[in-house]
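Thread: "does anyone have the structure for this chain?"

Original post by V.I.:
We have the sequence but no experimental structure in hand. Need at least a predicted one for the grant figures.
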Amino acid sequence: MVSINNFRDLDIWKNGIILVKGIYRVTEAFPRDEMYGLSSQMRRAAISVPSNVSEGFRRRHPKEFKHFLSITLGSLAELETQIVIAHELDYLDKQNYDEIIKLIDYISRMITSLYKKL
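Reply from O.Q.:
Generated one for you, C-alpha cells below.
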C-alpha cells in the first residue's frame, strides 16, 4: 500500500484544484451584477473543496479527517445546487454544466470511498 505524506498527493485534492479553476473560468462570464452574488458563492464553495481536504489531512487523525471530508461533501452539494441555478438562469451553457456536474460527482465518489476506508 502506498503511503501518502502530503495532501498535494491526494487525487481528491488535485481534482478539487481543477474544479476551482473551472469554476473561476466559467464565472468570469457571468453578468457583472452577479459578481458579489452567485459567482462569489460558487467560488467560495469550490475553494472549500481542496481547502477542507488539505486541512483535514494535516490534522493527522482519521476522525478529524473524516469530519473535514464530510464538510467537503456538503460544499460539493452546495456547489452542485449553484451550478443548477446558474444553468437555469442561462449563465452556464450545457457543455460546462455537464463537465462540472461530472467532476463534482467524481470527487464526491472519491471522498465517499476514502471516508469509508478511514
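V.I.: this helps a lot. DSSP finds four helices and no strands in the chain.
O.Q.: and The chain has one domain: 7-117.
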